Amino acid sequence: MALLRRAALALLALPLLTGCTNDAKDPAKAGDASDAETAVRAFYDEFARGDFDKACAHWTTSYADLSVKRWNEDDFGKPVEDCPDLLKALTHVYAMVGDPLDQLEVTRTSSELTTDTTARVDVTIASSEGDAETYELTLTDGDWLISGDDPGQDMLEGSSGSSPSASPTP
């Protein structure tokens, strides 16, 4: 009888124990920093090729909105309507010094997970070889999306009231 009671208690406790697990901490379901790097590389590749809609799909909506707002408020150039317009405007800036495909080539990346669903990726592109940009990424519905950035020494440094996660620095 005591054995039956222990078995019943064990069966009752099983759902409680499994209910306490967190899928985000399961290594098979958590993000991987190399996947975040791949997302940043894909963004730059699509950006450089002029596929602005696909490139913008690597940004969260809030990051895209803030980047467009910052571009327009800080008067970096002709006002833009949305993320694809912003990337097109930035391509024109890169074109002033060379072929954007060459300028936007990713030369180095490094990354780290900051939580199970966030990562930081440092990326260096050919046009700014000595100055890496740091991107914040969020794992959203299984995809790593760029959700913020921390620009290096670039044209945005003098931006008034800028916050690291709101600047349009691809």
Brief digest:
The chain is α+β, with helices and mostly antiparallel strands and 170 residues long.
Structure description:
- Residues 1-29 and 153-168 have low confidence and may be disordered.
- The longest helix has 18 residues, at 2-19.
- The protein contains six helices and four strands.
- The termini are far apart.
- A hairpin with a 7-residue loop joins strand 2 (118-125) and strand 3 (133-140).
- The chain has one domain (31-153): Nuclear Transport Factor 2, Chain: A (Roll).
- It has helices spanning 2-19, 33-48, 52-56, 61-73, 83-95, 100-103; strands spanning 106-115, 118-125, 133-140, 143-150.
- It is globular and about 40 Å long.
- The chain has a four-stranded antiparallel beta sheet.
- With 170 residues, it is α+β, with helices and mostly antiparallel strands.
What's the helix and strand layout?
Elements lengths: L1 H18 L13 H16 L3 H5 L4 H13 L9 H13 L4 H4 L2 E10 L2 E8 L7 E8 L2 E8 L20
Antiparallel strand pairs: 1-2, 2-3, 3-4
Task: Tell me what portion of residues adopts beta-strand conformation.
Answer: 15-25%
Specify the structural class. Answer: alpha+beta
Ranges with pLDDT <50 over ≥5 residues?
Answer: 1-29, 153-168
Query: What order do the strands of the largest sheet run in, or round the barrel if closed?
Result: 1-2-3-4
- Shape descriptor reads globular
